[in-house]
């Protein structure tokens, strides 16, 4: 029987509950106290939008492990409505506020695990707390929004912030037949992605008559005569009405408890920890949205407020606290996914935009391919952007958007990143293939092949939003394709169908910098190879072809 | 412009056509001759069953790249109906038989790429070539089967061999409303998998009234008075009638051309090659079903007759032949997938059965989990078996079966294997999660966690088909669950619901070897931890719980 120690855990959901159960499995003798300032422990935060929209019909489904189960099965002393208010590190004790009894008490610990999560950002604007303005973090929030959206006669909602949660809320409120306005400070939805990759999401939103205000932040909440929210004022001066306002502006880590106890806070505002999730005080661990993780693409510590890392880090911290040892918390890649109506968009690691911001040299290729064999019915096109280091070919990140197979491609790439993989190694992964499931050369391979071609100088890729003026642009699609949809932002593109190119080389100037383009980049790749081997010294392939070019130009115009 | 050399390619489909196009992209000056003994090049072999069943409605869809396109776009000299019959290595030339003109001629090469594929095995039995007996390798075969199945009044088919192609044929012939008999020499369908993992497939077959003869090989073909196939005789003496017989018995590599030229043949019967797909003669390459690959799980060369490796190796060989250099062909893991009605079954690397046969020490864990968050509607259970090395934790293989999300899990694990990954590393992969797509702790994580628990002695797993007699078996499910479905092959299991276990420890003998079990293994894991920490020295968790136990016992009985 292991040591009889007291483990106190602050926060009873993703990180905290995961720590508690693993701690119990590793140590039957320990006293394990789980403090949760709100009513519920172990609920499915990530399910809240779907409960609001009614897609998850039963509220009870959101209670993943009840307090009762945690008590009976795991002998965890679950204390809901009890808030940790102060850590006394010297005395190894915690001040706790019992919100039910309205009392304070002190709790001694041998090991303390902090998983207090994060709080939705509420901007310092007028009427930010008016009735009808909501943030979404827990079940009580969800109940309130659902009540307001379903039970009142709300007809129109303003969602502020087009990140993961904002987009999920748009989808789910649309499901409730509300008219939706979506405002976002960035000039695009889903800011973690590169702008062109978000085009299909914006299209999905516009197709459902979601009114988009991009590049426009919130300036204030409008209220009616009773003081209820009736709309928002944007920084541009634009005003839009609405019966409820959802703020989905991101989160602020709940790091104050740690900070007040003198524990180190990292550069990104989360509690600083080592690979065992130990803070500067080895008896105090921190995990989840309040903490930082080792981030794969940069090798630095940063916050990654997602459920997977919180769960895994919580589990390891629980084990370490309970037994004195555990595996190290591996790098986190920031892999995330969201569904926006039929479209899925996923990302892992760095976008090109983020890499630039960090001063990291990054190349990218964008390919479009079917999610399974094209000859098998039901194939859907997905677009995959692979970001990598020009010197080493190390994979830095990827983004994928489409209606099917998006999660699989990002998970495969995220797995390769976990091993510090390069695009060369990615080109060799041996994936499952039968017509209903994939292709003999999977989209992941196509992206990796293209990246290797880029690294080897076999084919150089040009960003899809590049300025093409002054370059010799060759569009190698068929006449029919070109006239149906001319290449965006390339008015004097020379159209030569690929299959005629060798005969018509004389029409081109081999000394001019040349950009080739086609539908999605495949034919342009063949064309680029023909040109290069025929004396054209400077040839680039427009990444993602006319398809992604259209997205990029639309997004650039939007900015 | 690169060197003007002559590259001759034997075989115009997966490996051959991939080599040809890449060769052209790397070398505009080369003469590239693609020899194909049959009518069609570049067709979708893997789509043939779905064309026969009518799921792929247009035959033309199967022609991935037409000869015309290869000629126009890639300037490839496509020579259909022309068969390479002899290699003269000293003279660097090839004898070719033109089947249309019924002529022979000689062809000089600088580089020769062999991708002649494999031939379906036809056993040396009576009437093996009777009309109505079919094998399936190319379009002509598919046309014949389709003709026979659709246009004649065929009502019943006998499929011999329950491998990937056999199972696809069963599914597709069932779609054509034929009654089906499926015979397989092995005591299970899909022999690459461990027997218990195939239970859901067998169930799917039986549910559709496919008559199964397992552990029974074919002894002869029965014919009617006109000499047409009318059924099969099995080795057991059993006789079954049928209007057509499909032989899906695996393939024999077309290595004779190479062998006759004195090139080395590997231990598994494929042409031996190095990492550049070069045979013993550096000007002759071999790829695809006729060749061997470096196989990840063993580090040895072996045949892996699948389209992905053929395509990738062909591409690299084409590049090497055309330019004198290429990346090395990476390890192949043997990743494969098949759909059998609603069920998907996938595998990568070694099964436990294969590992045993090879004398490789292998441990395994089997878990069951939802393919996405259980609280989000539509979650489907999948079962995932992870096979790994006991000393190092190196992943040796995995198998997965279920109706959704199977390909993703196997692809993630196959990717980890590509990096020589261990189950410890797998436990840390950062996968995308939102409720419609996955879980915060994905099934891949659960399997990896369990494997780590096994390695660390936190929880030891017992194979689901183990003999439990003599052991103290504790079933920790609820009374209701136990009475609804008692644990198979464990008549004197002691039922103690998990939540009562701590109070009822006195009912158990802590000195007896103890096996715990529950629904799928999760509660048993908690129970095992309680027992171990309460003085029970020898505790094992029945892998996959009552669910997989039922499968294993059913399959054991079937043998
Ligand atoms: C609506 C929504 C949707 C989401 N969707 C996804 C998704 O699809 N995929 C994904 O990966 N992530 C998603 N997330 C993020 C994910 O839920 C979080 O990353 C994860 O829950 C973080 O775990 P945590 O333990 O750090 O915080 P939480 O799970 O929030 O738990 C922290 C708990 O600590 C309590 N607490 C705070 N301070 C104290 C204190 N002083 N004393 C006692 N208790 C305290 C809080 O009340 C809270 O219940 C979503 C989040 C939300 C809100
Ligand atoms: C029905 C069916 C379904 C399949 N399904 C899948 C699947 O779902 N997933 C998967 O990964 N794999 C699948 N495969 C396997 C896959 O098709 C093969 O692994 C792949 O085609 C092998 O490529 P290859 O180039 O070696 O051979 P092939 O693609 O068969 O090409 C070889 C060609 O060479 C020609 N040839 C042979 N000898 C000569 C000669 N002397 N001269 C000239 N030409 C010659 C042959 O006629 C043949 O056309 C399937 C195969 C079949 C038959
Ligand atoms: C559910 C919760 C309380 C954790 O409880 P838990 O008992 O650790 O349950 P999990 O499902 O996470 O873990 C399953 C355990 O069974 C093991 N396991 C899984 N399948 C198994 C099988 N078939 N056989 C044996 N063991 C198995 C796992 O290894 C793990 O044990 P370990 O941690 O000791 O290795 C916590 O994750 C939680 O509160 N989640 C909801 C909140 C949340 O995550 N929100 C964000 C996402 S919506
Ligand atoms: C189709 C076939 C002829 C190969 O032709 P291919 O021109 O090499 O076509 P692929 O789709 O395989 O390759 C696409 C090329 O475009 C590149 N590419 C893909 N997407 C791209 C994009 N968006 N931008 C730029 N390049 C791209 C790839 O890198 C690859 O080029 P590379 O090999 O020079 O690196 C051959 O694979 C074949 O015959 N297949 C059918 C037979 C078969 O495989 N059967 C078994 C499975 S059913």
UniProtKB/TrEMBL annotation, chains A, B:
InterPro entries: FAD-bd_OxRdtase, FAD/NAD-bd_sf, FAD/NAD-binding_dom, FAD/NAD-linked_Rdtase_dimer_sf, Pyr_nucl-diS_OxRdtase_dimer, Rhodanese-like_dom, Rhodanese-like_dom_sf. This is Putative NADH oxidase. The keyword Cell inner membrane does not apply. Keywords: FAD, Flavoprotein, Oxidoreductase, Redox-active center. The lineage of its organism: Bacteria, Pseudomonadati, Planctomycetota, Planctomycetia, Pirellulales. The keyword Flavoprotein applies. Its cofactor is FAD. It comes from Blastopirellula marina DSM 3645. One of its GO terms (molecular function) is oxidoreductase activity. SUPFAM superfamilies: FAD/NAD(P)-binding domain, FAD/NAD-linked reductases, dimerisation (C-terminal) domain, Rhodanese/Cell cycle control phosphatase. Belongs to the class-III pyridine nucleotide-disulfide oxidoreductase family. Residues 467-549 form the Rhodanese domain.
């Amino acid at each position: 029987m292991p040591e009889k120690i007291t483990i106190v855990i602050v926060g009873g959901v993703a990180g905290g509950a995961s720590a508690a159960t693993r701690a119990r499995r590793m140590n039957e003798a320990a006293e394990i106290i789980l403090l949760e300032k709100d009513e519920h422990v172990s609920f499915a935060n990530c399910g809240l939008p779907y409960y609001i929209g009614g897609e998850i019909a039963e509220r009870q489904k959101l209670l993943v492990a009840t307090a009762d189960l945690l008590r009976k099965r795991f002998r965890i002393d679950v204390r809901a409505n009890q808030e940790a208010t102060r850590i006394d590190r010297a005395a190894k004790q915690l001040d706790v506020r019992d919100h039910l009894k309205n009392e304070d008490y002190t709790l001694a610990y041998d090991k303390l695990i902090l998983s207090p999560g994060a709080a939705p950002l509420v901007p310092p604007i007028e009427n930010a707390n008016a009735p009808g303005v909501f943030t979404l973090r827990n079940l009580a929030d969800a109940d309130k929004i659902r009540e307001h959206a379903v039970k009142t006669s709300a007809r129109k909602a303003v969602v502020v912030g087009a990140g993961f949660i904002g987009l999920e809320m748009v989808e789910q409120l649309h499901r409730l037949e509300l008219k939706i306005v979506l405002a976002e400070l960035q000039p695009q939805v889903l800011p973690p992605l590169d702008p062109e990759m978000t085009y299909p999401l914006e299209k999905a939103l516009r197709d459902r008559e979601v009114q988009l205000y991009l590049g426009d932040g919130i300036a204030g909440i409008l209220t009616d005569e009773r003081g209820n929210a009736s709309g928002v004022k944007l920084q541009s001066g634009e005003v839009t009405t609405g019966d409820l306002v959802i703020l989905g502006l991101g989160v602020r880590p709940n790091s104050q408890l740690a900070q007040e106890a003198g524990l180190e806070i990292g550069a990104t505002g989360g509690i600083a920890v080592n690979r065992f999730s130990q803070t500067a005080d080895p008896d105090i661990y921190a995990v989840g949205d309040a903490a930082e993780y080792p981030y794969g693409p940069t090798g630095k510590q940063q916050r990654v407020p997602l459920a997977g890392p919180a769960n895994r880090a919580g589990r390891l911290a629980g084990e370490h606290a309970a037994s004195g040892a555990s595996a190290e918390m591996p790098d986190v890649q920031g892999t995330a996914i969201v569904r926006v109506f039929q479209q899925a968009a996923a990302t892992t690691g760095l976008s090109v935009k983020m890499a630039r911001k960090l001063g990291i040299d990054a190349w990218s290729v964008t390919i479009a391919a079917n999610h399974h064999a094209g000859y098998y019915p039901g194939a859907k096109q997905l677009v995959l952007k692979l970001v990598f280091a020009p010197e080493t070919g190390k994979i830095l990140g990827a983004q994928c958007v489409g209606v099917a197979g998006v999660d699989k491609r990002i998970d495969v790439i995220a797995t390769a990143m976990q091993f510090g993989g390069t695009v060369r190694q990615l080109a060799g992964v041996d994936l499952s293939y039968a017509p209903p499931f994939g292709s003999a050369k999977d989209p992941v391979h196509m992206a990796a092949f293209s990246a290797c071609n880029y690294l080897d100088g076999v084919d150089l890729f040009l960003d899809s939003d590049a300025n093409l003026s002054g370059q010799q642009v060759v569009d190698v699609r068929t006449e029919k394709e070109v006239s149906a949809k001319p290449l965006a932002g390339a008015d004097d593109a020379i159209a030569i169908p690929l299959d005629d190119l060798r005969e018509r080389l004389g029409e081109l100037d081999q000394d001019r910098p040349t950009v080739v383009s086609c539908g999605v980049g495949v034919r342009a790749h063949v064309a680029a190879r023909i040109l290069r081997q025929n004396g054209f010294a400077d040839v680039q392939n427009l990444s993602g072809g006319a398809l992604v070019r259209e997205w990029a130009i639309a997004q650039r115009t939007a900015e």
